[in-house]
Amino acid sequence: MWILPDWPGPSNVRAVTTTREGPARAPYxxxxxxxxxxxPAAVAKNRNFLREVLWLPAEPxxxxxxxxxxxxxxxxxxxxxxxxxxxxxxxxxxxxQTADCLPVLLAAxxxxxxAAAHAGWRGLSAGVLENTLATMHTPPSQILAWLGPAIAxxxxxxxxxxxxxxxxxxxxxxxxxVATRAGHWSCDLYELARQRLRNAGVSRIAGGGFDTFRDPRxxxxxxDGANSGRMVSLAWIQNPPAAR
Length: 244
Fold this sequence. Notes:
The protein is α+β, with helices and mostly antiparallel strands.
């Protein structure tokens, strides 16, 4: 049911990503997205199950994600419009919903601070990861990153406008695109995120290697359209970090 980050995260930081598998009804599977078109009662039941089974210390700090670059500092209430969140408070559960877009979790090496970002192509090209790192107090050189389940390059064809948006900010982004047909390209979100993180000073990057489109365990809007639910990537600080 769960995907656990394969990063050398701090001992006091917990993180997990849900899948479609769980006690939920078809066609959505285990879905936590309130804006997915699923029955609201079913989504509420899934969210309650999530809290209980994972023994979450608090209700997740849900965001109203709009493919932008705004970052909030948790805890937050009432689902603010934002695509990333940062917290230095133990017990605050950060939450990023996805169904092809890339969830990125960040943690200070000493466990004093965490962040979570929603990195679809629009937010990624506009600087959501850079804004998230700028909001954190921890220097990028002391941050660990994990790239969660997203659509892989072999399943993600985009138009010229997507490639142009990335190349306008960094010509080196051309390595993440391979021509498929006239005016279209396969797009490697994982590579683009790695480039952005490295350019910002983050060198310890784990994760990647998923393909939401081809993996039936995972939600994919491109594959399932209106019947696609949402996964959620969660991160929280379990205990106060040791004194510096």
